[in-house]
Design goal:
The chain has two domains: 424 residues, Methylamine Dehydrogenase, Chain H, CATH 2.130.10; 69 residues, Immunoglobulins (Immunoglobulin-like, Sandwich), CATH 2.60.40. Strand 7 and strand 8 form a beta hairpin. It contains five helices and 42 strands. It starts with 11 loop residues before the first strand and ends with a strand. The chain is mostly beta strands. Strands 37, 38, 40, 41 and 42 form a five-stranded antiparallel beta sheet that branches. A four-stranded antiparallel beta sheet has the order 6-5-4-33, with no helix packed on it. Strands 7-8-11-12 form a four-stranded antiparallel beta sheet, with no helix packed on it. The longest helix is centred in the C-terminal third of the chain and has 9 residues.
């Protein structure tokens, strides 16, 4: 397929290969010369030095923030940055693990609470609490923090994942520090090691439901589940999958017993799914319980209180003759209603030390009976015996750390490798994305642009987890509506400051007299172009279809690329 423009800029020629635009410095060139020179290649106009994928991911947006970075960004399906939230002036400026876009268009992100010291002794967060977090902030489109919550003291710290609930509350994961006496009393094996010696303390886990207080700030914990309430000595836990063996692992992982690293919520069944890096297992518990029932072994819709209702991936954790299917996993996600595979659970299987040498994306179908209860035969592992779908290419697909995956509305799967190729020490390259079909054909690949926001662990850009939102999502519509009146400034070659403001009917350029101005599609096709005949010049958008566009200004030989703007229906 050929796509042409009448005339490219006098100094630049742009060539599209399979995935990226490349700039070649040449003289002015017309469409006839393009046809002769590039034959079946696709030709398009792009602003100097700006690289975007030539193909496009399926409809929707990606939300992402580098761990330990100071910004969160929303990307369109061509991986262009639509908007950026700058956190550099916040007290918890460093990002945590997760971020979400709320239905009102606000950002909900985790942050790292500053450490608290008494003299030279750190009293908050607790020792070995990593990845460090402790805060959750709600931030509007202009970067204002409208609500914040902190749980970070000498005993607790919010970490890894959290999940906004339909009722406006938030499920979050927190460390809990236990003494040796407490862990032994709960049924944890007294021989548990920490760095080769008997553990004197350990970090366990709890899941809390936070009800935000928008009037006074902060919030209250209205429900909680603590893992240690459902631990039993090995002799009682074997062949009892509803409790966790106190001998499930022989030693701690950096002072942590579980390292709970992902959480999701099924509003249809009122169930919580979470994963553990250390146990290499996926778990489901009942959220319909009261807090008191969640401490016990009875109550709730399933009648088991806070006991484990379902687990998958490592049946040798609860069966004498069990097996291990999973070796480190992240990002458990229930496939939404209306999506292909709805009700199934997906996760990123890091497959650390796996014999295949590659990671996997795994989709399973939890076994429910007609009453909505989990099916499990006594003395047997929970089903299914094999996944519903697995993505496991032969090579060039590996991330030993973090990472995430999501089913898209069209049935494709979006996959995010947080540390591509990382085996052993973490790699230094940025994370990468791919979209694949059910038949495992690759639709597109790409890397998220950092926008100048670096990450932790020596990474240029390392979001631990991304989020996907279809363009029909209310949060996307509300955010883009609030972004439709930005003021964007740029320096032209004449050193005038040119400002651009978007209204519902036009794009207004100020100080642009004598410049060529235009609106372009994301692949560089001109939609409206003109010469600014006056100091204040407007381009009408009334006849332009809804969508996301680029604005460009040319002043002599200088071309300026501006942020995207979106026209709503």
């Amino acid at each position: 397929m050929l796509q042409f423009i009448n005339l490219l800029p006098a100094s630049d020629e742009y060539l599209i290969t399979d995935h990226y635009f490349f700039k070649i410095n040449v003289g002015a060139i017309d469409m006839i010369r393009l046809t002769k020179k590039f034959s079946a290649l696709v030709v398009s106009l792009l602003v100097t030095g700006f690289f975007i994928p030539a193909n496009a991911f399926s409809d929707g947006y990606i939300l992402s923030g580098a761990y330990a970075g100071k910004a969160t960004m929303l990307y369109d399906n061509k991986l262009n940055v639509v908007t950026t939230w700058d956190h550099s002036k916040l007290s918890d400026s460093l990002n945590g693990y997760s971020c979400y876009l709320m239905p009102n268009g606000h950002l909900l992100r985790s942050g790292q609470a500053p450490a608290v010291y008494r003299g030279v002794t750190q009293i908050s967060p607790p020792p070995n609490a990593a990845p460090q977090q402790g805060t959750i902030d709600e931030i509007d489109a202009k970067g204002n923090v409208v609500w914040s919550y902190t749980l970070c003291d000498s005993i607790h710290m919010l970490h890894h994942d959290f999940k906004p609930l339909p009722n406006g509350n938030i499920l979050a994961v927190s460390f809990v520090r236990y003494t040796r006496a407490q862990l032994i009393a709960a049924g944890v094996d007294s021989t548990l090691k920490d760095n080769g010696t008997k553990a004197k303390a350990m970090l366990g886990e709890k899941i809390v439901e936070i009800k935000p207080d928008y009037e006074n700030g902060g919030g209250s914990i209205v429900w909680e589940w603590t893992m240690l309430d459902h631990v039993a000595p090995k002799e009682l836990a074997m062949n009892n999958p509803n409790v966790i063996s106190g001998s499930i692992v022989p030693s701690l992982f950096s002072g942590q017993w579980v390292h709970l690293n992902g959480i999701d919520y099924d509003s249809t069944r009122d169930l919580i799914v979470f994963t553990s890096r250390v146990f290499s297992e996926l778990f489901i518990i009942d959220h319909s319980t009261t807090t008191e029932e969640a401490k016990s072994h009875s109550g709730g819709d399933h009648g088991k209180g806070g006991d484990i209702l379902y687990r998958w991936g490592h049946s040798s954790n609860y069966l004498q003759n069990g097996t291990q299917t999973i070796n480190v996993l992240h990002c458990p996600t229930w496939i939404p209603k209306g999506y292909p595979g709805e009700g199934n659970i997906m996760f990123f299987h890091n497959n650390v030390n796996g014999t295949s040498g590659v990671s996997e994306v795994v989709e399973i179908t939890p076994p429910f009976d007609n009453d909505g209860k989990f099916i499990q035969q006594s003395g047997a592992a929970f089903g299914p015996s094999s996944p519903a779908w697995v993505y496991a290419p032969a090579s060039d697909f590996r991330s030993d750390y973090m990472s995430s995956t999501f089913r898209l509305p069209n049935g494709n799967t979006l996959i995010h490798e947080a540390y591509p190729g990382a085996a052993g020490p973490m790699g230094s390259s940025g994370s990468r994305l791919r979209e694949v079909t059910k038949e495992q054909a690759i639709v597109d690949t790409g890397s998220l642009k950092s926008g100048g926001s670096s990450g932790g662990f020596g990474m240029s850009y390392n979001p631990a987890k991304i989020m996907y939102y279809p363009s029909s999502y209310a949060g996307i519509k509300n955010l883009l509506a609030s972004l439709n009146t930005p003021v964007i400034t740029s320096r032209s070659s004449s050193k005038q400051e040119i400002s651009i403001s978007a209204t519902s009917k036009s794009i207004l350029f100020v100080n642009a007299q004598g410049c060529s101005v235009g609106i372009f599609t994301l692949n560089g096709k001109p939609v409206v172009t003109s010469n600014a005949a006056s100091d204040r010049f407007a381009l009408s958008t009334s006849s332009i279809p809804s969508g996301t566009y680029l604005v460009k200004i040319i002043n002599g030989t200088t071309t300026t690329q501006h942020k995207l703007f979106t026209l709503l229906p």
